């Protein structure tokens, strides 16, 4: 598809955006958790290979190693803290063109946010699953999920911070909320979304290894060339509609995902 000529965009739109950010008519909300050694990373049981936690190693700090400058080496798995899942992350998405962090068209990192609030249900049931019926009820109240949208589930799960309750691991796997397997194809195929965002460590529910299909959010979302955003926070500061989410991952060549800073522009 040919790019729209720049002249088609009214210049007032960008001027109003900047003015709103500068004067406070638009609030910028940080949906990102801090990235540090204690940042929680998903734990896979053996024999699956583990992902490294975040680490920071000082190169110099205004000392003999570098008298005028401070900098660090960093290391971590791509799927650490608040992070982006690219379609290539899952075997079902491996054959799409432009499915990695470096070659996804950049306009697909920005879209309107549809925030589905199920915090109460997730508080009552840690294994709560978002069903198609709940999404359809949301659409009755707020309108149909528009094209190019980020669908974010607000569970308030991020309020568990970096404590044990965040992963909520048990002998039978983790117990954290997520998507009902039948809801995922509805969002992925019947709505033209960019992807989904969650407050838990991954986009699938803690018990999703036992679902049919296994890990439906990864299997079907990435199998439909859609994205995931995991370990989001501050979703309680977003309205159901009206916010814009900006979520570009690092441009890692052939990356399956990356930690990122996720921002939401919210009308005041
Ligand atoms: Mn991930």
Number of DSSP-assigned strands: 15
* Ligand set: manganese (II) ion
Shape: globular
The topology string of helices and strands comes to HEEEEEHEHEHEEEHEHEEEE
Estimate the strand proportion. Answer: 25-35%
Explain the layout of strands and helices.
Elements lengths: L10 H13 L2 E5 L24 E9 L2 E10 L7 E3 L24 E8 L1 H6 L4 E2 L1 H11 L6 E6 L9 H4 L1 E2 L2 E2 L3 E2 L3 H8 L2 E5 L18 H8 L3 E4 L13 E3 L10 E3 L3 E5 L1
Parallel strand pairs: 5-7, 6-10, 7-11, 11-12
Antiparallel strand pairs: 1-15, 2-3, 4-12, 4-14, 5-13, 8-9, 13-15
Helix pairs in contact: 5-6
Bound molecules: manganese (II) ion (MN).
The site of manganese (II) ion has 6 residues, from strand 4.
What does this structure look like?
By secondary structure, the chain is of the alpha/beta class. 19% of the residues lie in helices and 26% in strands. It contains six helices and 15 strands. It has helices at 11-23, 119-124, 132-142, 164-167, 183-190, 216-223, and strands spanning 26-30, 55-63, 66-75, 83-85, 110-117, 129-130, 149-154, 169-170, 173-174, 178-179, 193-197, 227-230, 244-246, 257-259, 263-267. It has a nine-stranded mixed β-sheet. A two-stranded antiparallel ribbon has the order 2-3. Helix 5 (183-190) packs parallel to helix 6 (216-223). The longest helix is centred in the N-terminal third of the chain and has 13 residues, at 11-23. The two termini are 35 Å apart. Bound molecules: manganese (II) ion. Manganese (II) ion binds at residues 79, 83, 85, 202, 230, 257.
């Amino acid at each position: 598809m040919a790019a729209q000529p720049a002249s088609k965009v009214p210049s007032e739109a960008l001027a109003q955006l900047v003015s709103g950010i500068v004067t406070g008519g638009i609030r910028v909300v940080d949906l990102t958790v801090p990235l540090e050694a204690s940042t929680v990373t998903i734990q896979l049981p053996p024999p699956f290979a583990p992902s490294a936690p975040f680490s920071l190693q000082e190169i110099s700090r205004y000392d003999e190693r570098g008298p005028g400058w401070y900098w660090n080496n960093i290391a971590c798995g791509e799927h650490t803290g608040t992070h982006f899942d690219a379609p290539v992350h899952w075997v079902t998405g491996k054959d799409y063109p432009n499915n990695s962090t470096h070659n996804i068209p950049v306009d697909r990192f920005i879209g309107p946010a549809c925030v589905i609030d199920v915090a109460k249900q997730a508080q009552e049931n840690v294994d709560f699953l978002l069903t198609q019926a709940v999404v359809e009820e949301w659409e009755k109240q707020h309108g149909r999920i528009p094209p190019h949208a980020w669908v974010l589930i607000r569970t308030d799960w991020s309020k568990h911070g970096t404590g044990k309750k965040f992963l909520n691991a048990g002998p039978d796997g983790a117990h954290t909320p997520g998507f009902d397997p039948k809801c995922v194809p509805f969002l992925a195929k019947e709505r033209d979304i960019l992807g989904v965002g969650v407050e838990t460590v991954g986009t699938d529910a803690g018990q999703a290894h036992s679902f049919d299909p296994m890990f439906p959010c990864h299997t079907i979302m990435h199998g439909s060339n859609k994205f995931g955003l995991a370990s989001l926070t501050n979703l309680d500061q977003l309205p159901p509609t009206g916010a814009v989410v900006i979520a570009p991952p690092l441009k890692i060549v052939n990356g399956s995902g990356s930690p990122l800073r996720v921002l939401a522009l919210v009308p005041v």
